[in-house]
Design brief:
CATH class of the largest domain: Alpha Beta
Number of domains: 2
CATH topology of the largest domain: Rossmann fold
Radius of gyration: 22 Å
Strand content: 5-15%
Oligomer: single chain
Number of strands: 5
CATH superfamily of the largest domain: HUPs
Strand order of the largest sheet: 1-2-3
Shape: globular
Number of helices: 13
Distance between the termini: 27 Å
Order of helices and strands: EHEHEHHHHHEHEHHHHH
CATH architecture of the largest domain: 3-Layer(aba) Sandwich
Bound molecules: adenosine-5'-triphosphate, magnesium ion
Length: 336
Amino acid sequence: MTSERKRILTGVRPTGALHLGHYVGALENWIRLQEEYECYFLIADYQVSDHADQIRDLHRQVHEVALDWLAVGLDPERSHYVIESMVPEHAELTTWLSWFVGLGRLQRNPTLKSEMADLEAAGSDAIPVAFFTYPIMQVANILLPKAHLVPTGEDQAPHIEMTREVARRFNRLFEREVFPIPDGLVGRVPRLVGLDGNAKMSKSIGNTIDLKDDAETVTQKVRGMFTDPTRLRATDPGHVEGNPVFMYHDAFNPNVDEVNDLKERYLVGKVGDVEVKTKLAAALNAFLDPIRERRAHFESHPALVREALAAGTDQARAVGRETMAEVRSAMQVDYL
Ligand code: ATP
Ligand code: MG
């Protein structure tokens, strides 16, 4: 059952609950585009090698991602929920494509470079070989269903650039247009800052507001957020630019008049952090309420979550087998 719609491939690592950064960086585009594209949403369990000690937790984490997706409204009737390691063609294509990525090219990938530096700084005594090569697997993930579009946050752009290079190189080498050259698409907020003011809200850093957090947790987290470090008293003029609290207001508070009023008063020292944060927590909780409701529904229907994963993974295997047959034929390694 191959649809005529153009295809999307994108995904997340099953390393923890999805958060506000995922929403504005990626999920929002996925939700919108699932009407127009045939979407393959991937749970990239092969790419969690930097958490090898927590491998027993993957089972639960994979189901948690699927729950978060159902909660935000990614419709498994239209789109395919795919478990990466249950489609062996991902590993097969990764092996072939790793012939066409130079060592130096991989070492220069800026996202990989900074992630490896973080791992080393955190004291991991070794970076798994599988971590170093994960961008090649990401290339294979995108090319296996012949995706045209890859909507992600900004940090994934170097991997998409590599994918374009590999696809072009493969097509040229084997004189066949096997792979479309995919485009990237970065979300409304390319990289949402963390609660701690870190440049990226990230599961691994633990500076997140999760889509499944309850109202009280959200309120507490907002209360503890970084604001303007130069401002000591509510009567001091403050900075709006680069202030995480206002970045979140801009991203999630639909009441533009309220946000503008808070900004004007903040700049001249006429509003305290408490009011700015109370209004932010209210806006976030209003935004998260329908997501929480849908999540509760699917939590009490685990069979629906399992079915979504099973059906999507089957579909990805079918498409993966087709592509691998073409790849083998193009490379003339279809020996028998
Ligand atoms: P980890 O820290 O385990 O890598 P993560 O929070 O970076 O987790 P991923 O699963 O790696 O999450 O990323 C899933 C998708 O969400 C990617 O498209 C990524 O670009 C996007 N994304 C993640 N964090 C943010 C953020 N803070 N702002 C915008 N987009 C984000
Ligand atoms: Mg990441």
